[in-house]
Amino acid sequence: MSTPNTRLAAFLEQCRNQIDAELERQLCASGQGSERLQQAMRYSVLGGGKRIRPALCLAAATALGQPRESAIVPACSLELIHAYSLIHDDLPAMDNDDLRRGRATTHIAFDEATAILAGDALQTLAFGWLAEAPGVDDQVRLAMIRELATASGHQGMAGGQAIDLESVGKQLTVEQLENMHRHKTGALIAASVRMGALTATDVNEDQLAALTVYSQTLGLAFQVQDDLLDIEGDTTVIGKPQGSDLARSKPTYPSLMGADGARNYLSQLLESALASIEMFGVEGDLLRDMAGYVVARTH
Fold this sequence. Notes:
Its cofactor is Mg(2+). It holds the Pfam family polyprenyl_synt. By secondary structure, the protein is mostly helical. It has a single domain (about 5-295), classed as Farnesyl Diphosphate Synthase (Orthogonal Bundle), CATH 1.10.600. About 70% of the residues lie in helices and about 0% in strands. It contains 14 helices and two strands; from the N terminus they run ααααββαααααααααα. The longest helix has 28 residues, at about 205-230. The chain starts with a helix and ends with a helix.
């Protein structure tokens, strides 16, 4: 029997290979319109990345006994939304970052207008792919489109980013910080798990509720670790400037709790995430492995 580390490593490699192959196949297909725009889209999506959200989508499908192939397109649509959000996050009007995934951000590699359009195009493309996802019926497609729209719009990621921009230089409470990150980071992570679960037509309410708690808790854990990496990580490893949140006076978990307090909270979140999926047997092991990976990652 494989250990959790070797099992997860094999799963993540297989997931990256499957997702990257599908993303490249779709994005590199000949199409009409601006070649420069298509280059910017490919640059943003195919330039590395951990593929955590697609991996969570596939792991959730596995936990419910569903073949991973049925979750490949939903997983890819999640990565398109994530890539679009990073492009817009990095813009001068937002975080004004020059480095992402160890190389120039899209607006630096191309130009600001092209970056905005690339983000817009990736967002709409995600819903186009999802609307034609094979292996699921129309009702499931509709449910996944609704899930992704809610998670990425004003009730989710976009709303969280707005709160983030409004909070620069302000002293937030822990509750206010969590509200921001449940939207900005957690909503898309929760959608990743729930969309993977929705590919299983026999998923029941108890299972979906447990996976929702797991994913929401994991979304907060992801952000706590991100905040710790911002003060403790190496720029060459994390792929973006170390200390950038501190330099912009952005509220973070370490700034509110201290580094040790944030680490303790991270451990509590991991424990809660694992407890929430106790109902799943060995089929849920990949979700357990992913939780451990999220809180221990170095980039």
